[in-house]
Design a protein that fits this description.
The chain is about 0% helix and about 55% strand. With about 375 residues, the protein is mainly β. The strands form six sheets. Strands 1, 2, 5, 6, 7, 8, 9, 10, 11 and 12 form a ten-stranded antiparallel sheet that branches. The protein has a six-stranded mixed sheet with strand order 3-4-32-31-30-26, with no helix packed on it. Strands 13-14-15-16 form a four-stranded antiparallel sheet, with no helix packed on it. The longest helix has 8 residues. It is globular and about 55 Å long. It starts with about 20 loop residues before the first strand and ends in a 6-residue tail after the last strand. The relative contact order is 0.12. The N terminus is likely disordered.
Length: about 375
C-alpha cells in the first residue's frame, strides 16, 4: 500500500475552472475583489484569489495547484498553475490530460523541479506517467510509463540531486511487489533499492509507508508475524529494523497503519481511521509523547505536510489542533511543544514549507501566512 497518510490532505473539495481570462499562460488576478488581508493575533493572513482547487504544494515564493478544465466522471484534464504568493499572479505551467488518480505526494527538488506520478487514461488504457514539471519555464516531461496497479505512486524529495518513488505493484497471481527506488533528479535514471514481496496468502513482506529525513529512508513494514520500523541508506542497505512495543500496543487498539513520518528522532504514525501516535527515539529507547494528545478521542495535533522535512537542518515540526483551531510547533532539538498563538478559523486543511503556511477553511477558501514564526 502506498503511503497516503498526508496525501489526500492535498485533495480538497471539487474543482472548477477559474473565470479569469488568460494570456500567454498568465491568469490575471491582481485586482480580484475577493483578495483581502487581515490581522489575526498580530499575524498577517492573506486570502488567496483561488477558487476551489486541488493543492500541490509550496515551493519558494510560489504556491502550486491543479485546476480542472473538463472531462468525464472518472477522468479530467487539469492545468498545473503557479501562484505567486507576493503578487497574486497566476501562470499556467503545464497540463495533465485524462487524469484519473494520483497519490498527491510530490517531490519538490530545488526551486525549479517538481516530480509527480499521475494515473491517466491513454488509448483507453490506464497507465501511470512519471513526470518532471519545470516550475520556472513551464512544461511537463514524461520520464517513464508503466501500467502497474494501484495507480498511487508517492514521490518523496531527498536532496537537490535525487528523490524517492514508492510504488506497490499487484501481480497477476494476486501477490504484491513493493518497490522503493531512488531517481536521479537531473538525468531521470532510477534504481530499485528496496524490494519486498508478499504472496497472495499474505506470506512474505510488505511496505506500508515510506519517508525520508537527512538522506535516510524510513519505512513501516509488515511480515507474516510482526510490524517493523526500518531504516535504509540511499543504496538500500538495511541500517535498522525494530519491532517497537509501544507501537505494537497502539496498533492493537487501532487499525491498519497508514503512514510514517520521521523528523530528527521523532516518529509520527497515523492509522487508516485517523488515530495518531508520536514516539521519540533516543539513547534511552522509545518514549511516547503523551503531551501531544489533544482530546479524549486519542487524536493528536496533526503534523502538517512539510516539504522541508527531508533536510537535516529542519528541526521544527509545525502542528495544528483541528479541535481548538490552534497552531503550535515541536522543537525536536529540545522536545518542547510551543504555542504559536495563531488561530485558523474554520480550517479544514493546512500545508507548510516549514515557515510559510496555506490553509483552507470550511468554505473552501484559501489563506496564506508568510511566516508562522513572525511573532
Amino acid at each position: 500500500m502506498v503511503n497516503i497518510c498526508l496525501i489526500m490532505l492535498a485533495i480538497s473539495g471539487g474543482c472548477k475552472r477559474a473565470a479569469d481570462n488568460t494570456s500567454n499562460g498568465v491568469i490575471n488576478s491582481a485586482n480580484n475583489q475577493n483578495e483581502v488581508e487581515k490581522i489575526t493575533n498580530n499575524t498577517q493572513v492573506k486570502k488567496l484569489a483561488i477558487d476551489s482547487t486541488t493543492v500541490i504544494g509550496i515551493s519558494g515564493e510560489n504556491f502550486y495547484y491543479q485546476e480542472r478544465l473538463n472531462g468525464g466522471i472518472d477522468t479530467g484534464n487539469y492545468d498545473i498553475v503557479r501562484y505567486d504568493l507576493k503578487t497574486d499572479e497566476k501562470t499556467k505551467i503545464g497540463e495533465i490530460k485524462n487524469l484519473s488518480t494520483w497519490s498527491g505526494v510530490n517531490a519538490f527538488v530545488n526551486s525549479d523541479k517538481l516530480f509527480a506520478t499521475f494515473g491517466v487514461v491513454e488509448d483507453e488504457e490506464s497507465c501511470n506517467i512519471h513526470t518532471k514539471i519545470d516550475l520556472k519555464s513551464g512544461g511537463v516531461t514524461i520520464l517513464s510509463r508503466d501500467n502497474n496497479f494501484p495507480p498511487l505512486v508517492a514521490n518523496i524529495a531527498v536532496n537537490e540531486n535525487c528523490f524517492v518513488e514508492e510504488q506497490a505493484q499487484k501481480l497477476e497471481d494476486g501477490s504484491y511487489r513493493y518497490v522503493v527506488r531512488v531517481v536521479d533528479a537531473n538525468g531521470g535514471n532510477s534504481k530499485d533499492v528496496i524490494v519486498k514481496n508478499r504472496k497472495a496468502d499474505n506470506s512474505g513482506e510488505m511496505i506500508v509507508s515510506t519517508c525520508v529525513y537527512d538522506d535516510i529512508i524510513y519505512t513501516f513494514e509488515y511480515d507474516a508475524q510482526d510490524a517493523y520500523v526500518c531504516s535504509y541508506d540511499l543504496e538500500g542497505n538495511l541500517l535498522t529494523k525494530e519491532s517497537v512495543k509501544l507501537l505494537n500496543e497502539f496498533l492493537k487498539n487501532s487499525d491498519t497503519m497508514w503512514g510514517i513520518n520521521v523528523i530528527n528522532g521523532y516518529y509520527f504514525f497515523e492509522t487508516l481511521n485517523g488515530k495518531r501516535l508520536v514516539l521519540h527515539k533516543s539513547d534511552n529507547g522509545w518514549i511516547k509523547r503523551e503531551d501531544l494528545i489533544m482530546n479524549r478521542t486519542g487524536s493528536i495535533s496533526n503534523l502538517i505536510v512539510n516539504y522541508n522535512a527531508k533536510d537535516e537542518n529542519y528541526k521544527k515540526v509545525v502542528l495544528y489542533d483541528y479541535i481548538n483551531k490552534q497552531l503550535s510547533y515541536l522543537d525536536t532539538d529540545t522536545g518542547e511543544k510551543i504555542d504559536l498563538d495563531i488561530e485558523l478559523p474554520g480550517a479544514t486543511y493546512c500545508m507548510t514549507d516549514g515557515k510559510q503556511l496555506v490553509y483552507m477553511n470550511d468554505k473552501q477558501e484559501l489563506y496564506y501566512i508568510a511566516d508562522v514564526f513572525a511573532k
